[in-house]
Amino acid sequence: MNYSMDMVPTNQKFKLNFKRMLAYGAAEATMQNFKDFLGITIAGLLQAIAICFFNFPNKFSAGGTSGIAIFLSAIFPSVSPGIFMVILSMFFILLGFAFFGNTYGIKTVYASIFTSITIYMLERAFPIASPLTKQPLAELIFAVMLSGLGTALFYYCNSSSGGTDTLARIIKKYTDLGIGKGMFFIGVFSTVANGILFGAETFILSILGLLAGTLVIDNVIGNLNLSKYFTIITDYPSEICSYINQTLHRGATLCNCKGMFTEYDKKMILTVVNPSQATALKRYIKKIDSRAFVIITNSSSIMGKGFKV
After folding, report:
1. What pLDDT digit, counting tens, does each position of 11-44 carry?
2. Angle, in degrees to the nearest 10, between helices 10-50 and 81-125
3. Which CA distances in Å does 11 have to 5, 111, 254, 294?
4. Of the four, 20, 103, 192, 199, which is 20 to 30 A from 1 by CA?
């Protein structure tokens, strides 16, 4: 016997939708974990390349454990910077477990081990005693871009490299300071110390790298977290809400409203979707209700299930 959802009692509709959302949520969580670990792997590779090919040879200290490792390696030349990074990472991993729990800690352990091993292998496979070029500013740009993108990816995947970005996350947890700005204030100390050891040129370039890294990290994180907030005033709320719930698998809030110009009663839908879903939703709204009034706002700070602050 064929029947439509309109023939199903309201309480059964709720149960069916709830079960559908649970099944989708479980599949989405598994896919999200896969995406997170893939992102962590890419981030670790980017940071390892930046550290081995640009930071270590140029003695750049744009914050982070690499800056501290360079400083300690200059004091204890028999120990490579990579070894110091492993030791420092272990300390920051313990902090991550303490402040952010097991999920963050496990991802950070993987990120730290992968990044440390990659750095160690690159040091052995491509030993670089001096800068690749005679253009330190160009090398600084590459170092900042690669390292900043890696740090932002770590944050987006709810992990860290096991470095000072863990401290920056702790600062963000208890203040309004962004990850990039937090890493800037933490990195100033190692940058000043390395400037004393390696001279004014290294110090100036490292400070520039620290400032540029702050901008890169905060901007990349903002773009990765970007969501679209929809305010939809329409005469077809059931169809649009059904599309948001069943096709986009997002929640929506339905409110009563009244147009002050026409004095007609209307329905207002509030929902938040990601950029790719926003395109599909706009297309559907235009198809179902060409007279709908829609306001779309960008936001990179959404609290709630399915979104990362």
Report:
1. 555 555 555 555 545 555 677 788 888 989 999 8
2. 80
3. 12, 46, 18, 31
4. 20
